[in-house]
Amino acid sequence: MDTAENTQTLLDGADLLIDALKLNGINHIYGLPGIPITDLTRRAQAAGMRMISFRHEQNAGNAAAIAGFLTQKPGICLTVSAPGFLNGLNALANATTNCFPMILISGSSEREIVDLQQGDYEEMDQLAIAKPLAKAAYRVLHIDDIGVGIARAIRAAVSGRPGGVYLDLPAKVFAQTIEAQAGKNTLIKVVDPAPRQIPAPEAVTRALDLLKSAKRPLIILGKGAAYAQADADIRALVEKTGIPYLPMSMAKGLLPDTHPQSASAARSYVLPEADVVMVIGARLNWLLSHGKGKTWGGKSSKDWGGQKFVQIDISPQEADSNVRIDAPVVGDIGSCVAAMLNGINASGGNWPKPSGDWLGAIEDRKSKNVAKMAETLAKNPTPMNFHSALNVVRDVVKANPDAMLVNEGANALDFTRSIVDMYKPRKRIDVGTWGVMGIGMGFAVAAAVETGLPVIAVEGDSAFGFSGMEVETICRYNLPVCVVIFNNNGVYKGTDVNAGGGADVAPTVFVKNARYDKIIEAFGGVGVHAITPAELRAAMEQAVRSRKPTLINAVIDETAGTESGRITSLNPKAAKK
Ligand code: ADP
Ligand code: TZD
Predict the structure, then answer these.
(1) Quick check: CB of 437 below 6 Å from ligand 2?
(2) Of the candidates 80, 275, 303, 359, which lies 20 to 30 Å from 25 by C-alpha distance?
(3) Peptide bond connecting 383 to the previous residue in cis, omega within 30 degrees of 0
């Protein structure tokens, strides 16, 4: 064999990695090039993969994580060694926390040098650092293990409770070679990566019995329910039982927010009053006040409110993590909800509907709160406040129910969540379990890439700053993203003063009257400075219609926000002096 033929029959590590991903139906990579992965990014593109190149790895990581949430396939984030890896790690940890499946693949330095700490280029023991933050972490040292490495990473990311997986690839693996057919033989097309987990029949019966005994039942839907893509069965379960439901933030739209059984507008009434609560794909963490305390009708912050709980979750360890779960149903939500529905259908027409008293009391609260909100939304102050601006966003989303909505900030988050109705599943993606700032542009890019649908990103001006440079990425790939910045001159609001009286502004205050719209103009996108609701409306409608990258600087009254939005009580109290 001459040399030319010889090289043709060889594959290197980069080839095999690309083949392994493609073999498993993964065609998108979110990343940022550099040593040792630059050539890999080029070759992925040459091999027909979509390689979306970012300006900062955290944003690429967030994009991968939300791609995982939207598609049930692990999103891939590809970074360089030590600093690039660390930049991506924030997103990996956030993915694990939120149960989003992603794989962070980072190139790394030579093991021999790292382990002797001899000071290699970008030296770091990345595997050890990733381990506590990831659901699983693996390293591939030989080219013939790439197939197994990818297969293990995929299974770990999507099976059971989904999460973030780290895959460490030392530079030399990319350059190792293997004879082509032998290499292909090492690859694994993962069969049934997220096996169904059927709940035990007795667990289903126990849950149905408890639900049946309820006088004031309530269902809570979390983002696990949205992730599960069991939309029709979840809707049928809610409607057949007639039980009022509350969607968590990213479960909004699983049933349309305008559904008559939605109790969102009566949240503070239903939580303490309910006697049996069925939680589907949500954790009783801080976002649900740990299932106890005053929110739930307890007398003090730790006091149990007396509710009994059914919890449907894939993680057998989730039950009892905060309060007693009387009827845990462990399995995947699709299988669990289907089993519950079977039980309900088996009862013929005998399933007891919640009492008219309970439903009537909820309806009462709802209509009062909705009327109060309508009054507030109808006001037209100058400058705009969160409500008058969100009245516009609410209309635009209603007219474009397929559009994706990304949301971050404090007030900009809380008000958007409560004012903007969602009509379809998995349309609202936001700061999630940590309330983390910085997901905005990464989520917006992936939402556009994965769905092809228009994306509206409602961003606090502080929140936007964490990922703002990706506006260039949005323009570069010509993505149909409309960023709306609620600009109130700072973190929470723009009116704080320097408590020491010095020349520096207060820590929460930004440059006054900043023109964020100019940023996108630098990259050829459409920038709009919107002072009135009419200007905001025209700009948003145009952006959604044209699908052109757009950034709207919506000027909001700088006095309008409150510290930390709705969670101001979580700020430690200063000692009274
Ligand atoms: P939220 O923030 O909306 O309240 P969480 O992230 O706290 O939701 O909870 C999501 C829950 O959903 C997690 O406990 C996770 O184990 C569970 N989960 C995720 N995917 C599935 C699935 N396919 N089947 C069952 N449970 C799931
Ligand atoms: N850093 C990170 C990574 N996440 C955080 N959540 C914070 C800091 C603290 N933080 C919040 O919780 S909200 C917020 C910060 C800095 C920004 C709020 O200001 P905003 O929104 O301009 O984005 P509003 O509408 O003015 O409240």
Answers:
(1) yes
(2) 80
(3) yes
DSSP 365-408: HHHHHHHHHHHHHH---SSB-HHHHHHHHHHHHHH-TTSEEEEE
Per CATH, 3-185 and 379-575 having the same topology is answered yes
Report the C-alpha gap between 418 and 152 in whole angstroms: 40
Q: Report the DSSP beta bridge partners of residue 551.
A: 483, 527
Q: Is 290 within 8 Å of 320 (Cβ atoms)?
A: no
Is the C-beta atom of 338 inside 6 A of ligand 1? no
According to CATH, the topology of domain 201-363 is Rossmann fold (3.40.50)
Q: Give me the CATH topology for the region 379-575.
A: Rossmann fold (3.40.50)
Mutate to test the pocket of ligand 1, among 97, 280, 286, 314 (most ligand atoms within 8 A of CB): 314
| Cβ of 470 below 6 Å from ligand 2 | no
Crossing angle of helices 356-378 and 386-399, in 10° steps, is: 110
Ligand number nearest to the C-alpha of 433: 1
The residue ranges of every structural domain in the chain are 3-185, 201-363, 379-575
Question: How is residue 122 written in tokens?
Answer: 């970008």
State whether the beta carbon of 333 lies less than 6 angstroms from ligand 1: yes
Q: What Å distances lie between residue 367 and 262, 370, 390, 496, CA to CA?
A: 12, 5, 20, 36
C-alpha 90 – ligand 2 centre gap (Å): 16
Cα 332 to ligand 1 centroid, rounded to whole Å: 10
Token pair listed for 172 = 């030399």
What is the distance in angstroms between the CA of the first residue and the CA of the last residue of the chain?
86
Q: Is 565 in the pocket of ligand 1 (CB under 6 A)?
A: no
- CA trace torsion 407, 408, 410, 411 (10° rounding): -30
Fold of the 3-185 domain: Rossmann fold (3.40.50)
Q: What is the dihedral of CA 113, 117, 122, 127, to 10 degrees?
A: 80
Amino acid letter, 73 = K
Please choose, from the candidates 316, 343, 342, the residue with its C-alpha nearest in 3D space to the C-alpha of residue 331. Answer: 316
Nearest atom of ligand 1 to the alpha carbon of 318: 14
Tens-binned pLDDT, residue by residue, of the chain (577 aa): 444 444 569 999 999 999 999 999 999 999 999 999 999 999 999 999 999 999 999 999 999 999 999 999 999 999 999 999 999 999 999 999 999 999 999 999 999 999 999 999 999 999 999 999 999 999 999 999 999 999 999 999 999 999 999 999 999 999 999 999 999 999 999 999 999 999 999 999 999 999 999 999 999 999 999 999 999 999 999 999 999 999 999 999 999 999 999 999 999 999 999 999 999 999 999 999 999 999 999 999 889 999 999 999 999 999 999 999 999 999 999 999 999 999 999 988 789 999 999 999 999 999 999 999 999 999 999 999 999 999 999 999 999 999 999 999 999 999 999 999 999 999 999 999 999 999 999 999 999 999 999 999 999 999 999 999 999 999 999 999 999 999 999 999 999 999 999 999 999 999 999 999 999 999 999 999 999 999 999 999 999 999 999 999 999 999 999 988 888 888 998 888 7
